[in-house]
Amino acid sequence: MPKTLTVHNKDGKAGYDIVLDSSFDNLAGEVKKLPVEGRRVCVVTDSTVAGLYLEEVKGILAGCCKEVDTFVFPAGEESKNLDTVQKLYETLIKARFDRRDWLVALGGGVVGDLCGYGAATYLRGISFIQIPTTLLSQVDSSIGGKTGVDFASYKNMVGAFHMPSLVYTNVAALRTLSQEQYSSGMGEVIKHGLIQDREYYDWLNVHREEIRKRDLGICLEMIARSDEIKRKVVEEDPREQGARALLNFGHTLGHALEKRLSFSMLHGHCVGLGCIGAVKISTDRGYLPKEAASSLTDLMEYLYMPVSAEGLSCEKVLEDTKSDKKMDGNAIRFILLKEIGRAFVDRTVTEEEMRAGLSAVLR
Ligand code: GLY
């Protein structure tokens, strides 16, 4: 039986379901609960995922709607831009998609963000479904309606909040992920434990071996626990006016490192490094015991995540923290930990403290 979490709107009414399953067997049943009958659906995916799951998903959707079209773009962050969105619009216009037709994002974070942005803007907004296939998209980017693309060298600079109508997660898709992609997703998973749930963080440590081996039962439980944390946060603060900012733990330094590394290191890995930096600052302030940093790097190394970055200038990374979207006027909204499982926003983190945080990861 699939496991279902429901994300509610601000008025308390059910918004959309997050369905967790270990196959696509229940996809048709879930999709048929939505008004797709007699409508066109366009599956948006990338060249990697197309070879793995497109035929299966297309076949399932064909039994739910009038027509299934596809839009496949080259895999990679380089495709996450307005040029690709323009090509998507062209495909939809040619196929005469109207306001009641649907998009389906089949893939990782790039696919979900780009397809979601296409859905948010085509004809001023059409509905879409998320079928996340990477760990990172299953625990983070498919939930909460953040959509968008990169602009010039600025990540996610153009976007919109646009909620999916369904998130269908097939955990078995983790089996086809590279080790790099899988361990990148663990950056967001570990972040969830650090910011909201000490017991979950301890559970990750206890189950590190099964997690490393991608035991599907443990992975399903892990994704369900992470999704539940994310669900609660985005329900309380869908448009990032307050509590949702806590999900940016590790992201101030993480995004700056990502940019300085010219996106050669995966997002979740950079977030992981950013978490080490933020834990160091929290430790220096006396909020966390000294061992917090070594136990975090120990867990990350066990899960094949990088714990350092080489050849970067600390000052240049610091400079990049200033162009981050998490700026509030001139102050950086830095997320720190009062204790493991309890994050808070701090606007007083100094450059000196950030230098010390970066010293924990720069070699
Ligand atoms: N990835 C952070 C958020 O969804 O707010």
Explain what the structure shows.
This protein has 363 residues and is of the alpha/beta class. Strand 12 (334-339) and strand 13 (342-346) form a beta hairpin. It has helices spanning 27-31, 47-62, 82-94, 109-121, 135-141, 179-196, 198-206, 208-213, 216-236, 251-260, 267-284, 291-302, 314-321, 351-359, and strands at residues 3-8, 14-21, 40-46, 67-73, 102-107, 127-132, 146-151, 154-161, 166-170, 327-328, 331-332, 334-339, 342-346. Helix 3 (82-94) packs across helix 4, helix 6 (179-196) packs parallel to helix 11 and helix 10 crosses helix 11. The chain has a 7-stranded mixed sheet with strand order 1-2-9-6-5-3-4. A two-stranded antiparallel sheet has the order 7-8. It is built from 14 helices and 13 strands. The chain is 45% helix and 20% strand. The longest helix is centred in the middle third of the chain and has 21 residues, at 216-236. The termini are far apart. Bound molecules: glycine.
Largest sheet: 7 strands, mixed
What is the average per-residue confidence, as pLDDT, rounded to a whole number?
96
Number of helices: 14
* Cα-based radius of gyration, to the nearest Å: 20 Å
Distinct small-molecule ligands in the complex: glycine
Question: What structural category characterises the helix and strand content?
Answer: alpha/beta
Strand neighbour order, sheet with most strands: 1-2-9-6-5-3-4
> Strand-and-helix sequence, N→C?
EEHEHEHEHEHEEEHHHHHHHHEEEEH
**Globular, elongated, flat, extended or rod-shaped: what is the shape?**
globular
Residue share in β-strands:
15-25%
Share of helix, binned: 40-55%
State the distance separating the first and last CA atoms.
Answer: 47 Å
Low confidence ranges: none
